[in-house]
Amino acid sequence: MEFTLEAKSGKARAATIKTAHSTIKTPVFMPVGTVGSVKSLDVHDVLDMLGAEIILANTYHMYLRPGDETVKKMGKLHGFTKYPKSFLTDSGGFQAFSLSDMSKPKEDGIEFRSHIDGSKHFFTPKKVIDIQLNLGSDIMMILDDLVALPATQERIALSIERTTKWAEESIEYFRGKQAEGVGVDQNIFAIIQGGTDKAFRTKSAQELCALPYDGFAIGGLSVGEANQDMYDTVEHTTQYMPEDKPRYLMGVGTPEDLIENIERGIDMFDCVMPTRNARNGTLFTSFGKLNIKGAKYKEDEAPIDPECNCITCKTYSRAYINHLFRSREISYFRLATIHNLHYYLNLMKECREAILEDRFAEFKADFYQKRQ
């Protein structure tokens, strides 16, 4: 992987990430394709309608169904899904933690039961890497010890201790695999933990960023803490992250969250919000959120967002999209998802242009002005 930092506007960064499968311009939002598919879209929508250079797939879900060995036999993620650009796969630890009725973090991994059939499984740092080697993702995330907030100081301290231990084990194992000729085109990121405690975040960041990872993520945020606590934690943590490697904030968030965290030096984001909200009738626009199910849109001839040039806005009225939603027509889910993801991806392009022209502060002010 090649990472080139091209410009800064304040702390906001514009960069290029080159993987074996695509060239990614940052800041970047990665659509979530949990089971190797962005919900309601096909590969042509993702490529031609959205132009997405990277999407996220979920290690936990692909491991349970259809199974990582099956994915490997079918040409790994790229061959199986026919999406030719970059994939990032998360470690699956969060899903093992959040979806399982029985999830137990232990010294050497996470024990959990499948949400599909109740079968028992155990994720170790090495196993998670082996699964992702089979998936063939361009960027893989390591197993980290997750903490539900609020948590005791003792539990957060244990989380950092385990996360660092597993990170050391993971990087040694992965680099060993690469030396054997396995996963040579794949890259690996570590995940900084520590809740909203700045001392813990400092400790975790310093320990992990000393290891030879290709990039670093901030995990364990957007889990119910106040927005300002998230922003303060990110601002504190990024100062300990390398300038010459990608910075990824996991599972975030609203358009406002993206703007605020780009301002604090983050390069990469993912979140189910644009796709999930689309399916539930909430559409993102340049002037804020729009609830398309509202009766007031029944005869509204305007597009969802007059400033948007996605296929949905260029072709259909709010009245028609409202009709499709109220009829539960399948085409609604596709058209709404295309719009929301287009909005997010276009917002990232606009942020990048503002950074390259060193006017990000003005861009942010205009972004909020429109929402008033």
Structure description:
By secondary structure, the chain is of the alpha/beta class. The longest helix is centred in the middle third of the chain and has 27 residues, at 153-179. The radius of gyration is 20 Å and the shape is globular. A hairpin with a 2-residue loop joins strand 1 (2-9) and strand 2 (12-18). It has helices spanning 43-49, 59-64, 68-73, 76-81, 93-98, 125-135, 153-179, 198-209, 227-238, 255-263, 273-280, 311-315, 318-326, 330-356, 360-371, and strands at residues 2-9, 12-18, 23-26, 28-30, 54-58, 86-90, 103-106, 109-113, 120-123, 139-141, 187-192, 215-218, 247-249, 268-270, 282-285, 288-291. The model has no long low-confidence stretch (mean pLDDT 96). Helix 14 runs antiparallel to helix 15 (360-371).
Largest sheet: 8 strands, parallel
CATH architecture of the largest domain: Alpha-Beta Barrel
Query: How far apart are the first and last residues' alpha carbons, in Å?
Result: 41 Å
Q: In CATH, what is the homologous superfamily of the largest domain?
A: Queuine tRNA-ribosyltransferase-like
CATH topology of the largest domain: TIM Barrel
H/I helix tally? 15
In percent, how much strand structure appears in the residues? 15-25%
Radius of gyration: 20 Å
How does the overall form come out from the CA principal axes?
globular
Low-confidence stretches: none
Spatial strand order of the main sheet: 4-14-13-12-11-10-6-5
Strand runs, count: 16
**Overall number of structural domains:** 2
Structural class: alpha/beta
The level of helicity is: 40-55%
Q: What average pLDDT do the residues reach?
A: 96
CATH classification class of the largest domain: Alpha Beta
